Amino acid sequence: MKQAIRGLALSLAFFGFGLTALLGQGSNEKPNILFIPVDDLNDWVGHLGGHPQSKTPNIDRLARMGISFTQAHCNAPLCNPSRVSLFSGLLPSNTGVYGNGERMRDKVPDATTLMQYLRSAGGYSVQGGGKTFHGSGPYDEASWDYYNMPPRNRRQIGERDEGLAEDAWAPWGPLDVDDSELFDVKNVNWAISELEKSHDKPFFIACGFTKPHMPWYAPRKYFEMHPRESIILPEVLDHDRDDLPYWGKKFAREVHTISNGSNFSRHGEDHDMITKHGQWERAVQSYLATITYVDHHIGRLLDALENSDHADNTIIVLWGDHGWHLGEKQHWRKHALWDVTTRTTMIIAAPGGYANGQLCHRPVSLIDLYPTMVEMTGAPERDGLDGQSLVPLLKNPEAEWDRSVLTTFGYQNHAIKTHKWRYIWYNDGGEELYDNEADPNEWVNLASFSKYESIKAELKGYLPSRNVR
Ligand SMILES: [Ca+2]
Ligand SMILES: [Ca+2]
Description:
The protein is α/β, with parallel strands linked by helices.
């Protein structure tokens, strides 16, 4: 796999990327940044192998242009806290932003977001559109020079299975509309128009996708690329949840609106409802179809950049805000601390001096993007950020890397991820421990076995000492 990616990267180097280095142009210019947040995209991406039937030729093409992180994790397993931590550079345990109800400026009024920093310290123009922070608007006016909000059409409802009960939870199905009618496509069109312009200042453009977040409605042609009758379901172990502590079981069963880890609303058990109504294959098909739809329009963005004057001087960063379960652990959605929930897609592609066309298997997280962008743009180093620049890994994906990754869900519920282990600690003292090398599905909770006491003690040492309420 690595060889193939390397070969393709080499050929790409002669068609645009790498030309800067070959021609010696633009070396003193600050690089532009194209940021591509993709909502609720887990690792069901071709080259990451999260699902054997995913079709993402354009995300795979981006991976060949840069470094794709196969162990990239979110710092919070839902939209608002994941994005606030990425853009503020501060972990949830340092801001107290744990749920979708809390606003960044209420908790950390003086935060300097990545966009603010690039503007003030780097002289960048900063523009966003679609879903960047939580919601489809700017969220934080101070973070943007301009924000694009395409008009929303009447809500598009996809075709449901015939005879499906009205109360079945099934927000998915094919749409008979043209792509151009959809919100994300209108937003991509705006970003393309910006990439086609010349700019006086270095630019940061965030073109955020609201899909593949539910509902999984996408044009019919993308469903036809994933025939339902041949859909492969995720591997599941019967009674997998029996060895979970109280909060693990709670998180697996329920849909949550969390505020400081205490406020839960019950919507019934997703997995029972989906299997009862025969919707599991349809759900997997719909998620795959929605990802392929997003991938197609990511390809249009990449084409536009490649055909523009900015191709040789623009960093592209694509990231999902957290993972997504489609039945693994009999769990659906996000809102938990297992690998399927925390793992996401993260690719950084930039011309010049990086080991492009390789995979990096070191554990990293979204909090690392802020300091990485600071270093890659040559902006002055910033104190007080919780992440660590990934530039050493972009230069050598196998560089020594002793960092662990922290994911937090609600007040004082944490997961620590190292290359080999996942350790989960809940605020009532409940624990889970998984050997991710031997047990990638996280089926066997080792926390109660005495032989792992010293491993647990070591991993516990990575838990944050500060937990802001
Ligand atoms: Ca999300
Ligand atoms: Ca289990």
